[in-house]
């Protein structure tokens, strides 16, 4: 009987241990975001194309995150995403419940020590972007009649309306002005996306660089009938340009005028240093389970045909995702040539443009 009791006790104890182990497994497998709120902080004002990209993506990320957390959005414009990046990098609470979304200005701001930057790219884990960046175009108000690059180059004092130093569109303005060697260009800053359009319409500014598909989504093709001109396009990092939209007038691209090795190297640096368009990221040091679930949810989003369809319907742009791992790999390939880096730093900054030769 004693032996039998020992056997029974052993069996019971084994069962208890198995039950405890099973409960432990359930705890490990419990969804990190079950019943939680995920805050997405955007480095922009609400209402623009960037916000639409974020919302289109997060709808599917929420779908694929185990536990399907509530997603809320906050906006922190400033310095082309610098405000958000500083906030994420310096926050003490790295609980995994905050995700940032910042445009391409994130990379150049760090690489060139833009004013106010208090973070490094190594402070973040990247989750990817819905696109690498679309083709862009320069839109000029009708009163100037600048419908060709020749007229554009001959015009003195073209006033660009833009958001802020460090913003991706500001950088494109400056890069275009550098490659085309424009005559004494100027920048009027502090506008939101919608305010830039109104500023050009009212003549407060002369021109703006803008996303080609955003231009289409806002039905701005109609403005061409009123005399607005598109003298030049800017290809994205994958070579897309204005020719991808049949309705657009045939115009040259900025890189067609890179007539020196120096200009070509600067353009190459620009393309390699902005691997993602509207970039999702988290500060390093969040719980491993949170990072794993986020990476998996974003990966499933990028591969979902329904996401690609809805992304295009909502933003007017084709989805062209890049993963977080691809962003991190691309950043390791950026040129280390100090001369090119110095010139590009002058271009993305607030001072005079560097000499083209």
Structure explained in plain terms:
There is one protein chain. This protein is an alpha/beta fold. The chain folds into 2 domains: 37-133 and 274-331, D-Maltodextrin-Binding Protein, domain 2; 136-273 and 338-348, Periplasmic binding protein-like II (D-Maltodextrin-Binding Protein, domain 2), CATH 3.40.190. The chain contains 14 helices and 11 strands. It has helices at 2-29, 49-64, 82-90, 105-111, 149-154, 168-180, 193-202, 212-217, 221-225, 261-272, 288-303, 305-315, 324-331, 338-348; strands at residues 37-42, 70-75, 98-102, 124-129, 136-140, 159-161, 186-188, 207-211, 229-234, 279-283, 322-323. It has a 6-stranded mixed β-sheet with strand order 2-1-3-10-4-11, with helices on both faces. It has a 3-stranded antiparallel β-sheet with strand order 8-5-9, sandwiched between helices. Strands 6-7 form a two-stranded parallel sheet. Strand 6, helix 6 and strand 7 form a beta-alpha-beta unit. Helix 2 packs across helix 11, helix 2 (49-64) runs antiparallel to helix 12 (305-315) and helix 10 crosses helix 14. The longest helix has 28 residues, at 2-29.
CATH fold-level assignment of the largest domain: D-Maltodextrin-Binding Protein, domain 2
CATH class of the largest domain: Alpha Beta
Strand content: 5-15%
On the 0 to 100 scale, the average pLDDT is: 87
- Distance between the ends: 99 Å
Report strand order across the widest sheet. Answer: 2-1-3-10-4-11
- Going by CATH, the homologous superfamily of the largest domain would be Bordetella uptake gene, domain 1
Overall, the morphology is globular
| Number of helical segments with 4 or more residues | 14
Query: What number of structural domains do the residues give?
Result: 2
Assembly type of the shown chains?
single chain
């Amino acid at each position: 009987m004693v032996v039998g009791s020992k056997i029974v006790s052993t069996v019971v104890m084994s069962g208890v241990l198995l039950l405890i182990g099973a409960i432990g497994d359930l705890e490990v497998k419990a969804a990190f975001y079950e019943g939680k709120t995920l805050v997405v902080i955007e480095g922009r004002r609400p209402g623009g194309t960037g916000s639409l990209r974020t919302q289109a993506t997060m709808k599917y990320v929420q779908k694929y995150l185990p536990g399907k957390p509530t997603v809320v959005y906050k906006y922190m414009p400033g310095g082309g995403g610098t405000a958000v990046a500083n906030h994420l990098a310096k926050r003490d609470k790295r609980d995994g419940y905050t995700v940032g979304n910042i445009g391409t200005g994130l990379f150049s701001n760090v690489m060139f020590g833009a004013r106010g930057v208090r973070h490094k790219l190594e402070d973040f884990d990247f989750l990817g972007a819905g696109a690498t960046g679309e083709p862009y175009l320069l839109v000029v108000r009708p009163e100037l009649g600048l419908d060709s690059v020749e007229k554009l180059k001959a015009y003195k004092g073209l006033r660009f309306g833009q958001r802020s130093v460090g913003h991706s569109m500001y950088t494109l303005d400056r890069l275009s002005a550098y490659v085309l060697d424009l005559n004494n260009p100027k920048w009027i800053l502090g506008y939101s996306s919608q305010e830039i359009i109104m500023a050009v319409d009212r003549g407060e500014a002369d021109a703006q660089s803008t996303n080609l598909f955003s231009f289409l989504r806002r039905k701005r093709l109609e403005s061409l009938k009123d005399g607005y001109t598109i003298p030049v396009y800017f290809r994205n990092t994958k070579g897309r340009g204005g020719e991808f939209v049949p309705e657009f007038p045939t115009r040259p691209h900025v890189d067609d005028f890179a007539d020196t090795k120096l200009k070509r190297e600067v353009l190459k640096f620009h393309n390699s240093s902005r691997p993602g368009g509207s970039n999702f990221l988290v500060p390093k040091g969040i719980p491993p389970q949170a990072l794993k679930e986020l990476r998996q949810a974003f990966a499933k989003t990028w591969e979902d045909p329904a996401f690609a369809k809805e992304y295009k319907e909502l933003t007017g742009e084709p989805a062209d995702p890049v993963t977080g791992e691809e962003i991190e790999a691309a950043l390791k390939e950026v040129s280390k040539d100090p001369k090119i880096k110095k010139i590009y730093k002058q271009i993305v900054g607030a001072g005079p443009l560097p000499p083209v030769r």
